[in-house]
Design goal:
The protein is built from 5 helices and 10 strands. It is α/β, with parallel strands linked by helices. The strands form 2 sheets. Strands 1, 2, 3, 4, 5, 6, 7 and 10 form an 8-stranded mixed β-sheet that branches. The longest helix is centred in the last third of the chain and has 20 residues.
């Protein structure tokens, strides 16, 4: 998974950099403990400049002040990235707990952090029209000063879709839709007066402003 600049990434149970290990308990990064519903997890990904370490905040079973505290702590400690997930219900622990929406949360974290890259693992295409997602991505890129990592995937959590009344097409159709989805997002981030006539999506001489801070666009990750 990943762009040419970011070939792959994976979740690992690992400690932060050695110089910061004394803070491991604060960010939920102790490698000797298993992940729990209310604990953030380090994320490691490989980039063109070597291994990078980010914090998967997992904005579930947490109130907002704690999410913000973890993000600021990760930023202060020198983590390379801060990541959320794209779901509307909790994935771990007891059902019915808090679970904040991903892109609005990411914009809020962009405003209270200064250095770490910001992204979502992984944005599900079924939750937002590609034109809406392109606008959200540009907004976060500007709020963060050009720190967005844009991840896109075909979505998978059928139970969540059914519960919330969100369409969940069969696998083959989702793959077909996803190909067009990525094209539409890319076009809106990079071109003016764009028309697109696909099977699932259409644009009619569309132009979106402003352009992303990162040119020609933020790094795009494709999740499988």
């Amino acid at each position: 998974m990943g762009s040419a600049a970011h070939p792959t990434w994976k979740h690992v149970h690992a400690s932060p950099p050695a110089a910061q290990s004394r803070h491991a308990q604060d960010v939920g990064a102790d490698q000797d403990r298993r992940r729990s519903p209310d604990r953030s997890t380090p994320t490691v990904w490989l980039g063109s400049t070597g291994v990078r370490i980010g914090l998967d905040v997992s904005q579930q079973q947490l109130e907002w002040p704690e999410i913000g505290r973890r993000a600021r702590l990760a930023d202060d400690l020198g983590f390379d990235g801060i990541w959320l997930f794209d779901h509307f219900k909790t994935m771990y622990g007891e059902s019915g707990g808090p679970c904040f929406e991903a892109w609005t949360s990411l914009a809020a974290l962009a405003a209270i952090t200064e250095r770490a890259r910001l992204g979502i693992l992984i944005t599900g295409m079924t939750y937002r029209h590609p034109s809406v997602l392109a606008s959200e991505a540009v907004t976060v890129d500007h709020v963060s000063g050009g720190r967005l990592e844009l991840s896109l995937g075909a979505a998978w959590f059928e139970e969540e879709h059914r519960e919330l009344g969100i369409e969940f097409p069969p696998t083959g159709e989702r793959v077909s839709r996803f190909e067009e989805y990525v094209q539409v997002v890319h076009l809106l981030l990079t071109e003016d007066d764009v028309s697109f006539d696909g099977r699932w999506h259409r644009l009619d001489r569309a132009t979106y402003r402003p352009r992303p801070v990162q040119q020609p666009h933020p790094p795009i990750w494709i999740g499988a």
